Amino acid sequence: MLLIEIILFLFAQYVLMFVVVSLVFVTFVFAIIPPHNFHYRISTEGIRIEDHFYLWQELYDFYFKKKEGLDVLHVRTQSMFPGELTITLGDLTPEHVKTILLSYLPYREYVKPTFMEESADWLSRNFPLEAQIHK
Q1: Hey, where are the domains in the chain?
Q2: Peptide bond between residue 94 and the one before it cis (omega within 30 degrees of 0)
Q3: How far apart are the C-alpha atoms of 2 and 120, rounded to whole Å?
Q4: pTM of the complete model
Q5: Using one digit for the tens of pLDDT, what is the confidence trace for 64-117?
Q6: How many angstroms separate the CA atoms of 127 and 13, rounded?
Q7: In this structure, what is the dihedral angle of CA atoms 73, 78, 82, 88, given to the nearest 10 degrees?
Q8: Rg (CA), the chain
């Protein structure tokens, strides 16, 4: 960021300097503040997340991924928005959730990552935001 700021200063692009600082600030804020805990409920009619209810007819399929050591359930929707419901399992096992959801939705063993997911994984591997402790 500092190199970009110097280059923008040399070209007298003060507004762009402000934009770069703002984007870096937002990135650090999102990385530091933990997410809000949501309440999920799976019933015979669908999945409820906080105040919104998704009927089984609105959902497409589901799969599991590990994200930072936690098992995460991903349920894809028929519509483009939201596109995918992401639910952390907490102390539930993926096998237990799979047995419940199999009677309502098809299960996918493997879902090909999108270009954006591959790019985000590459960025997080090569430019980590957290300081890594080497022993």
Answers
A1: 2-32, 40-126
A2: no
A3: 22
A4: 0.70
A5: 999 888 899 999 999 999 999 999 998 899 999 999 999 999 999 999 998 999
A6: 26
A7: -10
A8: 20
